Amino acid sequence: MHLHKYEKIWLTFGIGSLIVFLSVLGYGAFWQGTHPQSHGVTVDPNNIESYEAFKPENLGLTQVDDDKYIVNIAASAFYYDLGKDEEGNSVKHIRIPKGSTVLFQVATKDVVHGFNVAGTNVNMMVEPGYVSSLETVMNKPGTYTIVCNEYCGIGHHLMYATLEVYE
Ligand code: CUA
User: What is the pLDDT of residues 17-45, one digit of tens each?
Assistant: First the structure.
């Protein structure tokens, strides 16, 4: 089979591009941990408490193993419900030791909200009727702001909490 010179150049270019794009995709997925945020888990948007993780007593930070944690969050305009502390005050700040595996589970009671732990790969859209979840390893110490990055109404900019990763 005879291939024209230009045909060879274009074939090389096409196959080369494919290899470059697949490498970028593979790097993002396997080294940077970029994955779809959840698995299509549904919840009744008018009664998210019917889902075990969003019962008031299960909200916030729970340690499930030596270095494993779950954070359940009920989002609503304009507030992230992370449960209550011993004094009965709303939790606005959670602390997790460095190197922990953390599963975030978020659901909304009203409109679409965002859930972004700024500076990490935790960045999810929270849609009514769905549970957004993402498991990640918190390796970098510091204080991160959890922000709502989907415009949800007049108090959108007031919707935040903080997460501290300590050594
Ligand atoms: Cu919630 Cu913006």
Answer: 999 999 999 998 888 777 765 567 899 98
The torsion angles phi and psi of 30, rounded to 5 degrees, stand at -95, -30
Phi, psi torsion values for 107, nearest 5 degrees: -140, 155
Taking CA atoms, 37 is separated from 70, 135, 154, in Å, by 15, 9, 27
Residue owning the nearest CA to atom 1 of ligand 1: 113
The reply to whether the predicted model has a pTM over 0.70 is yes
Higher confidence at residue 28 or residue 54?
54
Q: Give me ligand 1 centre to Cα 57, in Å.
A: 23
Centroid of ligand 1 to alpha carbon of 44 (angstroms): 20
The torsion of the CA quartet 27, 28, 32, 34, rounded to 10 degrees, works out to -150
Find all residues with CB under 8 Å of 90, minimum gap 6, and list them. Answer: 81, 82, 83, 84
Sign of CA dihedral 78, 117, 94, 132: positive
